[in-house]
TrEMBL record:
Top-rank taxon, per record: Bacteria
Glucosamine/galactosamine-6-phosphate isomerase domain ranges (all copies): 5-228
Protein name in UniProt: Glucosamine-6-phosphate deaminase
Shown chain mapped onto the complete sequence: 17 to 260 of 639
């Protein structure tokens, strides 16, 4: 769906999420949200915070799983996704602490594999992700599933693409500070979500959006696997829609 701007699209996505949260509340059930970081979802989070403050939208029945985290990464570091999520969402809403899940970038390497397995398992036990938010990187990645990632990939430790590291540089003091690795939900983990909303704003995303949506399905553009998912929506602004 092409929106006039990021604000309009983000508002719509936030409303969709809020509606599902409220429906589940009425049924006395929980809802599982898959969350993304980066600049793309920020306005969705701002809108959700506004609805919490002004319209009494409660997050008490909400369980969240974040897509990814740098590895290694301390939660209180400036660039950590834990910090990002607190700043833009969790510190401003009434979500229960125990319902928040973000891959743990502090684990010793020998524990990572089992931890990732448990991450996917926990999602499954809770009934799967109801709504998954995604951004898209210029390499075509979703989460940190870089080119070469197949749709059989589960949550795991990955190596970051050079372009992704360059794009991340804006958040780090210098190149050597950008981690070489990250933990990410796999393509398979993402595709299990019941509904997926991918957000892409700005002309710099136009090329990769076109390749993800219109070109063949290939691990060279991991986001292209979303074409196989029956309930995925791409929300773009006019800039990001330019090559479609
Ligand atoms: C990072 C995140 C991705 C995100 C991407 C795009 O690589 N791990 O999940 O989609 O950045 O970021 P932005 O939304 O700032 O363009």
């Amino acid at each position: 769906k092409v929106w006039a701007d990021a604000r309009e699209g983000s508002k719509h996505v936030a409303q969709t999420i809020a509606l599902s949260i409220r429906q589940r509340q009425q049924e006395g059930e929980h809802i599982v949200l898959g969350l993304a970081t980066g600049s793309s979802p920020i306005q969705v989070y701002q809108e959700l915070v506004r609805m919490h403050k002004e319209e009494g939208l409660s997050f008490k029945n909400v369980i969240t799983f974040n897509l990814d985290e740098y590895y290694p990464m301390k939660p209180d570091a400036q660039q950590s996704y834990v910090r990002f999520m607190r700043e833009y969402l969790f510190d401003h809403i009434d979500i229960k602490k125990e319902n928040i899940h973000i891959p743990d970038g502090t684990l010793p390497i020998e524990q990572v594999e089992e931890y990732c397995r448990q991450y996917d398992k926990k999602i499954e036990i809770l009934g799967g992700i109801d709504i998954q938010l995604l951004g898209i990187g210029r390499t075509g990645h979703i989460g940190f599933n870089e080119p070469g990632s197949w749709d059989t990939s589960d949550t795991r430790l990955v190596r970051l693409d050079a372009l992704t590291r360059r794009d991340a540089l804006k958040d780090f003091p210098s190149e050597e500070d950008v981690p070489y690795r990250a933990m990410t939900m796999g393509i398979r983990s993402i595709l299990k979500a019941k509904a997926i909303h991918l957000l892409a704003w700005g002309q710099h995303k136009a090329e990769v959006v076109k390749r993800a949506v219109e070109d063949e399905i290939t691990p060279s553009i991991p986001s292209s696997f979303l074409q196989k998912h029956p309930n995925t929506r791409f929300h773009v602004d006019t800039g990001a829609a330019e090559c479609l």
